[in-house]
Amino acid sequence: MPPANRPPARRPPVAAIVACLLLPAVPAPATTMLAADTPDLVRLADAVAVADVVEVRSERTGGTVVTRVELRVSRSVKGLREGETVEVLVPGGEADGWVQKVQGAPEPHAGEAAVVFLERTGGRGWRFLLLEQGHLRVDADASVPGGWAVHRARSARLVRPGPGGALEPAPALPAKEPLEPYLRRLDALAREGSRP
After folding, report:
1. Residue 89: which domain range?
2. pLDDT tens profile 40-89
3. CATH code, domain carrying 135
4. Number of structural domains, the chain?
5. CA 98 to chain centre
6. What angle do CA 104, 109, 112 make, to 5 degrees?
7. CA pair distance 167, 27, nearest whole angstrom
8. Mean pLDDT score, 133-144
9. pTM of this structure
10. Closest CA to 57 of 19, 96, 103, 113
């Protein structure tokens, strides 16, 4: 069609464009996971320990990033020996200019101590049980023997089956617990779970 005979191009009304620009940004929903309480964590874990984070390094594998966390066991509750070193794989991280964030994944740091709940991935591999639910940082505090076991702020939305089976938000965990009583409770739960 010659330019003179072309119908005029339709443009969206200015009001529609302005309305789209004024819409609030809606955050993407977080990862949703079933919550585990402490007895569940001890029962489900292949290993429970207090461990020092020796090294944290991320690497690209194909189109993803994984983080390898080297842990040295300082106190064993179940499944590992004191002094043993294990490598734990965590999804996500930063490597070669790539950043991959996995909601619900723990973010251990070299030099910190943590209470860890681990599960085997096959062979000699390990991962944190239920991602960040299986990693509690230990914070030193001179006024509290052993310090605190800290439940980090959850980046995943935790749910539990409610009455009738519908999923509902899980009750909030305490922000932190005194470490020594918490470990005594873990020891008792591990002994209870090992009985025939």
Report:
1. 28-193
2. 999 999 999 999 999 999 999 888 999 999 999 999 999 999 999 999 99
3. 2.40.50
4. 1
5. 20
6. 115
7. 21
8. 94
9. 0.81
10. 96
